[in-house]
Amino acid sequence: MAEARAIDMLCKAFSVEERSSYTIKKGGEVVIKLYWKPLTIADRDSINKTMKALNLGRTEDNLDFAIQMLIRKAEDEAGNRVFSDGDRAKIQNRLPMSIVLDIMSKMQGLDEVEEADELKSEA
After folding, report:
1. pLDDT per residue over 9-32, tens digit each?
2. Which of 20, 30, 57, 107 has its CA 20 to 30 Å from the CA of residue 66?
3. What is the spatial distance between Cα 41 and Cα 16, in angstroms, rounded to a whole number?
């Protein structure tokens, strides 16, 4: 039997079809639940190309990337996009930056790192 290739093992273990979700609440009430598939390098390149075409910048180091990622990747439970390109101005002007950054960090998996205190308490 042939040994599995590294790329095949990784693709099997980390499917880009697996969706994550995040429930946004205000005052204990659910505002919306967003779903998304993992951000891939191809997604990032596509977002950067869109940003360049819109003259919004060339790097991921700005909020334009967060907004474009939110527009592109956020879905409802059925898998339909919840934002359109026309929502950009409202996202920029009518949503607190903290909300956009919070969603972006969830979408990029930045908040899944264990806290140092949690690591110490498990030892």
Report:
1. 999 898 889 999 999 999 999 999
2. 30
3. 11
